[in-house]
Amino acid sequence: LKTNKDSQKETIQTISLTEFVGFFKEATKDTWQAKVISVDIVDDKVAMVKLDFETPKTYYTDYLVMYKRDNNWRIINKTFV
Fold first, then answer.
1. Distance between CA 57 and CA 26 in Å, rounded?
2. Distance, CA of 38 to CA of 54 (rounded, Å)
3. What are phi and psi of 18, to 5 degrees?
4. Tens digit of pLDDT at every position of the chain (81 positions)
5. Which of 52, 49, 53 has its CA nearest to residue 78?
Protein backbone atom coordinates (compact mmCIF):
# COMPACT_ATOMS: atom_id res chain seq x y z
CA LEU A 1 0.00 0.00 0.00
CA LYS A 2 1.10 3.50 -0.73
CA THR A 3 -0.39 6.62 0.88
CA ASN A 4 -0.85 9.79 -1.17
CA LYS A 5 0.72 12.65 0.81
CA ASP A 6 -1.94 15.19 -0.21
CA SER A 7 -5.17 13.18 0.02
CA GLN A 8 -3.97 10.57 2.56
CA LYS A 9 -5.74 7.98 0.38
CA GLU A 10 -4.16 4.51 0.28
CA THR A 11 -3.60 2.75 -3.03
CA ILE A 12 -2.14 -0.61 -3.98
CA GLN A 13 1.17 -0.24 -5.77
CA THR A 14 1.93 -2.58 -8.67
CA ILE A 15 5.44 -2.78 -10.12
CA SER A 16 7.01 -4.83 -12.87
CA LEU A 17 9.52 -7.58 -12.19
CA THR A 18 12.22 -5.48 -13.87
CA GLU A 19 11.53 -2.55 -11.54
CA PHE A 20 11.41 -4.82 -8.48
CA VAL A 21 14.74 -6.46 -9.33
CA GLY A 22 16.25 -2.98 -9.68
CA PHE A 23 15.76 -2.46 -5.93
CA PHE A 24 18.37 -5.15 -5.29
CA LYS A 25 21.16 -4.28 -7.73
CA GLU A 26 23.59 -3.26 -5.02
CA ALA A 27 24.77 -5.89 -2.58
CA THR A 28 23.94 -5.35 1.06
CA LYS A 29 25.83 -6.47 4.12
CA ASP A 30 22.59 -6.75 6.05
CA THR A 31 21.67 -10.16 7.41
CA TRP A 32 18.27 -11.38 6.18
CA GLN A 33 16.47 -13.94 8.31
CA ALA A 34 13.59 -15.78 6.63
CA LYS A 35 11.00 -17.97 8.30
CA VAL A 36 8.44 -20.11 6.48
CA ILE A 37 5.11 -19.50 8.21
CA SER A 38 2.91 -21.71 6.06
CA VAL A 39 2.74 -23.70 2.84
CA ASP A 40 -0.67 -24.43 1.36
CA ILE A 41 -0.40 -26.95 -1.47
CA VAL A 42 -3.50 -26.60 -3.61
CA ASP A 43 -2.74 -29.45 -6.00
CA ASP A 44 0.30 -30.91 -7.76
CA LYS A 45 0.89 -27.62 -9.66
CA VAL A 46 -0.11 -24.71 -7.36
CA ALA A 47 0.90 -23.68 -3.85
CA MET A 48 0.74 -20.59 -1.62
CA VAL A 49 3.71 -19.83 0.63
CA LYS A 50 3.79 -17.29 3.47
CA LEU A 51 7.23 -16.08 4.58
CA ASP A 52 8.44 -13.60 7.18
CA PHE A 53 11.65 -11.73 6.39
CA GLU A 54 13.52 -9.65 8.91
CA THR A 55 16.48 -7.36 8.29
CA PRO A 56 18.17 -4.86 10.62
CA LYS A 57 16.24 -2.11 8.78
CA THR A 58 12.79 -3.56 8.12
CA TYR A 59 10.36 -6.48 8.36
CA TYR A 60 8.35 -8.05 5.51
CA THR A 61 5.61 -10.64 5.19
CA ASP A 62 5.63 -12.20 1.72
CA TYR A 63 2.82 -14.16 0.10
CA LEU A 64 4.07 -16.18 -2.86
CA VAL A 65 1.87 -17.97 -5.36
CA MET A 66 3.94 -20.84 -6.73
CA TYR A 67 3.36 -22.83 -9.92
CA LYS A 68 5.11 -26.09 -10.78
CA ARG A 69 6.34 -26.17 -14.38
CA ASP A 70 8.86 -28.62 -15.86
CA ASN A 71 9.09 -30.25 -12.41
CA ASN A 72 10.33 -26.98 -10.81
CA TRP A 73 8.42 -24.62 -8.52
CA ARG A 74 8.35 -21.02 -9.75
CA ILE A 75 7.04 -17.82 -8.16
CA ILE A 76 4.29 -16.43 -10.36
CA ASN A 77 3.03 -13.74 -7.96
CA LYS A 78 4.55 -11.97 -4.97
CA THR A 79 2.63 -9.75 -2.60
CA PHE A 80 4.34 -8.25 0.42
CA VAL A 81 3.65 -5.97 3.32
1. 16
2. 16
3. -60, -45
4. 667 778 878 887 788 888 888 877 777 787 888 899 999 999 999 999 999 988 888 888 999 999 999 999 999 998 888
5. 49
CB atoms within 10 A of CB 14: 6
Measured between alpha carbons, how far is 52 from 79 in angstroms, rounded to an integer?
12
The whole-angstrom separation of Cα 61 and Cα 63 is 7
The predicted model scores a pTM of 0.70
User: For residue 57, what is the DSSP state?
Assistant: S
Distance CA 64, CA 51 (A): 8
